[in-house]
Amino acid sequence: MPVFRYKALNPDGAVDEGEMEAASEAAVIAHLKQAGQLPVKAEEISARKRIRRGRLFSAGNAISRSQLTIITRELARLLGAGVSLERSLTILISVADDQAERKLLIRLVEEIRGGSSFADAVEAQGPVFNQLYVSMVRAGEAGGALQIVLDRLAEYLERSGEFRAEITAAMIYPAILLTVSVLSLALLLIFVVPQFQRMFDEAGAVLPLPTRIVIGMAEWMQNYWWTLLVLLLIILLGAPRLMSRPGPRQWWDGLLLSMTGIGDLVRKIEVARFSRTLATLLSNGVVLLSALSIVKETLTNSILSNSIKTVSERLKDGETLSGPLLEAGHFPKLACHMVRVGEETGRLDQMLMDVADIYDKEVQQSLRKMLSLLEPLLILTLGVLIAGIIFSILLALLSINELAF
After folding, report:
1. Rounded-to-integer distance, Cα 349 and Cα 275, Å
2. Do 3-129 and 152-405 have matching folds?
3. Is the pTM value of this prediction over 0.70?
4. Three-state SS across 163-225?
5. What stretches in the chain show pLDDT beneath 50?
6. What is the CATH number of domain 152-405?
7. Is the domain 3-129 a CATH 1.20.81 member?
């Protein structure tokens, strides 16, 4: 049974910390409530360790996405228990383990005590909270449903984090395989081939063309290997700056969408993100035009982002959402028809959430298919290259033996 670390408030207001074995986080919370305590935090210890490991790579004053999700969930829980917003933030400050979290919460409390709304206080923190977060909090405050909005925000952040984690995990093995393949070829060309090259030079024979090509590659690697590192450094440093310009970014995004297999995957990922974000905003009272302007900023592909801008302009002219989406040509027809059904039935937010679930699953299936093809393709390519190097060396050895006889 997993072990959970918890923090709770006793009836006298003191903070109680400890560990508890339970089947789930909900079981821990239920047990604490039965004991007359107010649950503040309950998380599995293994998950806690993963979050702390991630902090090693975060900036000193920044908080990770996982930390933001936990803060949002804890705040929603306290508000749901009837604790005031300022008191809830003060409690979170007292139980915060991380210095960056504590500083962020203190700034929020100071803003609220200075007369700001919670949405204004959140917006004042800069990039820590994105526009989606700020808009949902503002809508929740206006509608008197801040606790519900924070619960939905926490759920949205958790689902988004899980989706990113699945994609990252799926790409780990191919990345390792590609790295090992490149290193294996480099070692062969730099250390193994030169040993045979000396023997071939001593024999003084005319080498076959494949052998001369391999030896030429080995000599280039020995003399100019540093150019590969320089090129890699230029790509790592220059690519982000280049992609920040509208022209190159739009060209690259269009190229990705036009590539067989990859374009379809990118489109599904973006549609899932678009649908989930828009559904979350609409279900919390954000008007459609404002929601679309926020959603546009969450899309990473500039082609699709510009399509949303065009859709927004046509909505101002009185058109529906589904028609311009379908005419844009970048969104799957199934998604557009489901949006149309949502508009006709008055359940657009729920239908968008269904679209997001459908395409999340399709992305996972597409990734599995691509990886099932990519892994053997990498292995086959590595095998062919290594076999080619060995064959060229054996061919040279055979030609030298023929001359000897």
Report:
1. 9
2. yes
3. no
4. HHHHHHHHHHHHHHHHHHHHHHHHHHHHHHHHHHHHHHHHHCCCCCHHHHHHHHHHHHHHHHH
5. 47-61, 404-405
6. 1.20.81.30
7. yes
